[in-house]
Design brief:
The structure is a single chain. The protein is of the alpha/beta class and about 350 residues long. It has eleven helices and 16 strands. It has a six-stranded mixed beta sheet. It has a three-stranded antiparallel beta sheet with strand order 3-5-4. Strand 15 and strand 16 form a beta hairpin. Helix 4 packs parallel to helix 6, helix 4 crosses helix 11 and helix 9 crosses helix 10.
Length: about 350
């Protein structure tokens, strides 16, 4: 049986130095090699598909409804364009769709279905490091009382006394991701990064700059800025941004690093070595608004404050996301907001 692939046969086609067509090149392979068995489709044309309609027959007669390529393109681009238009002004933006960011989104979307929650995730696959446990192993360890959030979102676990174990971290991530995406007031842009922050003088008279939203771009474009000139981003205006950009990778701790670069924060504390006993409590209790308009939590906060890393225990990440959501709602309810911008404080 031949092991030569279709792509490799195309890539290795010989060519002459003068460019003439040689006898053995007269018919180039434009379809899979004949050594591969092919089963012709029963719906080989729109006429056949229209005549038979969709057929769910797994004995060789499966047939789809007809489709044209432009219909697929329009179905995607119309909805993506509508989403961009709608989310240009959001109520809350979340940077990072890891375990903390998704937990934050879940709490916000459930508590306030009237608010538009927009999530930016630089990776193609949301979930951050929560697809696996420690050292690429499967199980996810969550210390109590964060197990209550697992129960809330419907993730089963084994109770080990002081902590619980989810049999595979992907079970948590896939479950919460599915629930978050089902909320009609949530839009997730994956493969889309936060490239900068929008800042203006704080309308509340603090004398500080306020984060008023984010500057976004497709991740591959941002990573290619050194290859091309001037590939401008666009923006999302929001009165509150919650950042969970983590502590490693090309966009690790992005927001707090940007705060330092712009002079809004003096310096980073830099994450300390691992100490599970103190790290999780610290991260949850100190998840907060670090500058006007920007709440930071998760491992990004450890880079800002210089707290210890927590390692492969996830309760602190989940609870930090929940805490950020609660802080965000308190702030949102205290603001007078016009077109996504904080213009004053509501009177008590």
């Amino acid at each position: 049986m031949s092991t030569v692939s279709f792509k490799s046969t195309i890539a290795t086609l010989p060519s002459s130095a003068k460019g003439e067509v040689l006898p053995h090149q007269a018919v180039a392979p434009i379809s899979p090699p004949s050594s591969l068995k092919q089963t012709p489709s029963v719906a080989s044309s729109d006429d056949v598909a229209l005549a038979t309609g969709p057929v769910e027959d797994y004995n060789g007669a499966y047939a789809f409804t007809p489709i044209k390529e432009w219909q697929v393109s329009r179905a995607m681009t119309k909805r993506y364009g509508d989403d961009l238009y709608r989310t240009a002004i959001s109520d809350i933006v979340i940077i990072g769709a890891g375990s903390a960011g998704l937990s934050c989104a879940y709490v916000l979307a459930k508590a306030r279905p009237d608010l538009l929650i927009t999530i930016l995730e630089a990776g193609v696959a949301p979930g951050g490091g929560a697809w696996l446990g420690g050292q690429l192993m499967s199980a996810m360890v969550v210390r109590k009382p964060a197990d209550r959030f697992l129960t809330e979102v419907g993730v089963p676990f084994e109770d080990e006394g002081d902590y619980v174990v989810v049999k595979h971290a992907a079970l948590f991530t896939s479950t919460i991701l599915s629930k978050v995406l089902q909320f009609p007031n949530v839009k997730l842009y994956n493969a889309t990064c936060c490239e900068d922050l929008i800042t203006r003088p704080d309308a509340l008279g603090t004398g500080e700059l306020r984060v008023c939203g984010v500057v976004s771009n497709w991740t591959l474009v941002t990573l290619a800025h050194g290859l091309q000139s001037c590939m401008d981003p666009q923006t999302i205006t929001a009165p509150i941004t919650c950042s969970f950009a983590g502590h490693d990778g090309p966009f690790g701790a992005f927001s707090v690093k940007r705060l330092v670069a712009t002079g809004m924060v003096e310096k980073l504390g830099n994450m300390r070595a691992l100490d599970m006993r103190t790290a999780e409590d610290y991260i949850v209790n100190n998840t907060r608004e670090v500058v006007p308009g920007l709440i930071t939590g998760g491992m990004e906060l450890s880079e800002l404050d210089g707290s210890a890393r927590m390692g492969a225990t996830f309760g602190g990440m989940l609870a930090s996301g929940v805490k950020a959501a609660k802080e965000a709602l308190k702030l949102y309810e205290s603001y007078k907001i016009v077109d996504g911008e904080v213009v004053g404080a509501l009177k008590a």
